[in-house]
Design brief:
single chain; mainly beta; 6-stranded mixed beta sheet; 5-stranded antiparallel beta sheet; 2 helices; globular
Length: 268
């Protein structure tokens, strides 16, 4: 694959990855500088082309990309999924998210298969994100910072925790569950809640506070702050929501995800 605007050479050699990484590092730094939206979009297109090309090189799955510490980099503990995410801040302070997912499937002693997927942020046009099953081409964009693996019988799920800057008044955190169907990622899994079923959890809260959302190793659950309006009059206006001191959790058991209220998340 020839990458326009960057090296002008094919990146098909494993030994070319460090050189590509240095170019990506420099371009990511430019992407986060004070440049116009048009220049950012053009630069991001070049970044995406080179990054995807590099991640398509056989053996690239196990490269750690140490120079790219300005983006999200996650590897699943079963060594089958890599997820890279980053964002562009526009002049109006809105954010657009970008991502690439690598799926690595061992197929024998000497062979393996790695597939690369671009993640295209369509969150602005998804009307009911809590209810919809999504795919790489209509991804609910976020910066992922945690991945955990769940298995039951022969099925496997990956739970991604993400952050969305949203706007100047509120932020969001997301619980996204991914499965692979014929090696293609499917975003969204049934989560059983008190009021019904959803495909993902999206928490919106005041940009003036911090919300905790993490995988608890001791409990083996996704634990998070319970959000509530700071005053009853603000119910439904999420820019005025904040943690109320209690905790909820997402529990996986025998192939099912269930939302549990009021868990004890204190350290022993």
């Amino acid at each position: 694959m020839t990458v326009s605007g960057l090296s002008g050479q094919k990146t098909t050699d494993l030994f070319s990855i460090p050189e590509n990484e240095r170019k990506l590092r420099d371009d990511f730094n430019k992407l986060y500088s004070d440049i116009s939206d048009e220049v950012k979009d053009s630069l991001n297109t070049s970044i995406t082309e080179m990054f995807k090309s590099s991640l398509s090189i056989p053996g690239s799955f196990f490269y750690t990309w140490p120079e790219l510490n300005m983006i999200g980099k996650l590897k699943s503990d079963d060594m089958q999924v890599n997820v890279f995410t980053w964002h562009i801040v526009k002049k109006d302070n809105s954010c657009v998210y970008h991502g690439i997912l690598q799926y690595h499937v061992p197929t024998g002693r000497k062979k393996n298969q790695t597939t690369v997927y671009l993640l295209t942020d369509k969150s602005a046009s998804i009307k009911q994100p809590e209810k919809e099953e999504l795919y790489p081409e209509n991804w609910y964009g976020a910066l992922y910072y945690s991945i955990s693996t769940h298995t039951f019988r022969r099925k496997k799920w990956y739970t991604l925790l993400g952050y969305d800057f949203n706007n100047e008044f509120s932020n969001k955190k997301i619980v996204e569950i991914v499965q692979f169907n014929k090696n293609k990622p499917v975003f969204g899994e049934t989560i059983i809640t008190e009021s019904g079923q959803v495909k993902r959890l999206i928490f919106e809260y005041s940009s003036n506070v911090v919300m905790t959302l993490r995988f608890d190793e001791k409990l083996q659950q996704i634990v998070f702050d319970h959000l509530a309006p700071v005053e009853p009059v603000f119910r439904g206006s999420y820019r005025f929501y904040a943690p109320d001191g209690s905790h909820d959790a997402l529990r996986f058991s025998r192939g099912k995800f269930t939302l549990n209220r009021d868990v004890d998340a204190r350290n022993p």
